[in-house]
Amino acid sequence: TPRVFSGIQPSGGLTLGNYLGAMKRFVDMQDAGSHETVYCMVDQHAITAKFLEPATLAANTRELCAGFIAAGIDPAKSILFNQSQVAEHAQLAWIFNCVARMGWMQRMTQWKDKAGKNSQNASLGLFAYPALMAADILVYHATHVPVGEDQKQHLELTRDIAIKFNHDYGVDFFPITEPVIEGAATRVMSFRDGTKKMSKSDPSDASRINLTDDADAIAKKIRKAKTDPEALPSEKDGLEDRPEARNLVNIYAGLSEQTVAQVLAEVGGKQFSEFKPMLADLAVAKLAPISTEMARLMQHQDEIDKILAHGANQAREIAAPILKKTYEIVGMVGA
Ligand code: AQP
């Protein structure tokens, strides 16, 4: 069976963007049963951008684990674990640091965005981020990676690393990974600016829905979301040049598991004053049970830690032989 890998950073609370762009689709792939699914809290990635207090990183990691489970990831069906508990990721990443080229890394738009103007002050880890991400995926020989639109470029780099490794060492060892970017909500935008990605690190809390928000907060943020004065169109073309309207329709489609065309057939012609309460009701119905379950699970930290330890053992069973074989290919004595 083909293997799916994906991860989420415990760099802050989960957003609706993480949920629709990633987590919900992780659950769909798990439940489809056609793939072996491996999902990871990538804590080593979470410390690349800015300093995180140790207690915050630990709390975020456990909360993310609770989020995965509350959203429908079943540790009996998927391997669910924390990156730093499986040392093979960092070990393979070192090899990939020596395969990837500086120029490839410099072209990454996430590097450019996150390093900002003062890139001399950015961490070396932030620069090397995509090589660690390639190791996360390839240490499982995963062939499919469900992600949001923003990760497409990193997945192309993962393919480039696999191709160059295979070529340099004259082997056919690492698979060429396929990104899986599907659904109506692969790029959920900020509620304050329809041209900016909804992000957990946006300083404005009103720009996003957090998976820990209660029903009132969800409804209020949707009510206040930026829109334009026009009614909703009945056809998809009518959403062009209307990023805020398109975003809310995409979110509705993602949450209700419909296509954008189906949603517009239902809501075309309505004003936002009518559509926003519909969206708020839907969002509360879908998200409130997740936040309630997350809060419940967070009361049982020892259970979460047990799940992570078990997942790490399962992950290591796959990763260790692949790393060993990699070391042999590279010529590392004692592998
Ligand atoms: N707005 C989004 N729309 C759709 N998908 C999204 N993802 C993130 N934001 C959106 C997807 O979620 C997965 C995990 O993301 P991540 O935690 O690894 O990091 P990120 O992409 O950097 O997420 P954030 O929220 O934007 O974090 P910060 O603010 O720390 O940079 C990925 O599959 C991503 O595509």
TrEMBL record:
<dbReference type="GO" id="GO:0006436">
    <property type="term" value="P:tryptophanyl-tRNA aminoacylation"/>
</dbReference>
<dbReference type="InterPro" id="IPR001412">
    <property type="entry name" value="aa-tRNA-synth_I_CS"/>
</dbReference>
<keyword id="KW-0436">Ligase</keyword>
<dbReference type="InterPro" id="IPR024109">
    <property type="entry name" value="Trp-tRNA-ligase_bac-type"/>
</dbReference>
<feature type="short sequence motif" description="'HIGH' region">
    <location>
        <begin position="10"/>
        <end position="18"/>
    </location>
</feature>
<feature type="binding site">
    <location>
        <begin position="197"/>
        <end position="201"/>
    </location>
    <ligand>
        <name>ATP</name>
    </ligand>
</feature>
<keyword id="KW-0963">Cytoplasm</keyword>
<dbReference type="Pfam" id="PF00579">
    <property type="entry name" value="tRNA-synt_1b"/>
</dbReference>
<feature type="binding site">
    <location>
        <begin position="9"/>
        <end position="11"/>
    </location>
    <ligand>
        <name>ATP</name>
    </ligand>
</feature>
<keyword id="KW-0648">Protein biosynthesis</keyword>
<feature type="short sequence motif" description="'KMSKS' region">
    <location>
        <begin position="197"/>
        <end position="201"/>
    </location>
</feature>
<comment type="similarity">
    <text>Belongs to the class-I aminoacyl-tRNA synthetase family.</text>
</comment>
<dbReference type="GO" id="GO:0005829">
    <property type="term" value="C:cytosol"/>
</dbReference>
<dbReference type="InterPro" id="IPR002306">
    <property type="entry name" value="Trp-tRNA-ligase"/>
</dbReference>
<feature type="binding site">
    <location>
        <begin position="148"/>
        <end position="150"/>
    </location>
    <ligand>
        <name>ATP</name>
    </ligand>
</feature>
<dbReference type="GO" id="GO:0004830">
    <property type="term" value="F:tryptophan-tRNA ligase activity"/>
</dbReference>
<feature type="binding site">
    <location>
        <begin position="17"/>
        <end position="18"/>
    </location>
    <ligand>
        <name>ATP</name>
    </ligand>
</feature>
<dbReference type="InterPro" id="IPR002305">
    <property type="entry name" value="aa-tRNA-synth_Ic"/>
</dbReference>
<keyword id="KW-0030">Aminoacyl-tRNA synthetase</keyword>
<feature type="binding site">
    <location>
        <position position="136"/>
    </location>
    <ligand>
        <name>L-tryptophan</name>
    </ligand>
</feature>
<dbReference type="GO" id="GO:0005524">
    <property type="term" value="F:ATP binding"/>
</dbReference>
<dbReference type="InterPro" id="IPR014729">
    <property type="entry name" value="Rossmann-like_a/b/a_fold"/>
</dbReference>
<comment type="subunit">
    <text>Homodimer.</text>
</comment>
<dbReference type="InterPro" id="IPR050203">
    <property type="entry name" value="Trp-tRNA_synthetase"/>
</dbReference>
<keyword id="KW-0067">ATP-binding</keyword>
<keyword id="KW-0547">Nucleotide-binding</keyword>
<feature type="binding site">
    <location>
        <position position="188"/>
    </location>
    <ligand>
        <name>ATP</name>
    </ligand>
</feature>
<protein>
    <recommendedName>
        <fullName>Tryptophan--tRNA ligase</fullName>
        <ecNumber>6.1.1.2</ecNumber>
    </recommendedName>
</protein>
<comment type="function">
    <text>Catalyzes the attachment of tryptophan to tRNA(Trp).</text>
</comment>
